[in-house]
């Protein structure tokens, strides 16, 4: 798990566009999760900040994520979500440890 490259996006969605954003995110998500280097992707909505979403995606390594990031596949994905956004940021990190919950997969 220590080699996993994680990308965390913080997205500000335009007021009133939240349901459409969630729907489109689900519809186009396979353009990310279908990439052989992607290990999964999650969408979370903030409970404290209206219109704020976090997208987390895990990748086998940074070079393969960067390859995806500059691909036509990613550009098309971003263009479909862009109309709903009013701002955002990206943070990258390397997972250094993971503790599964009791009863979870080990």
TrEMBL record:
Domain ABM, residue spans: 5-93
Pfam families: ABM (PF03992)
This protein's UniProt keywords: Monooxygenase, Oxidoreductase
Origin: domain of life: Bacteria
Record-level Gene Ontology MF annotations: monooxygenase activity
This protein's name: Heme-degrading monooxygenase HmoA
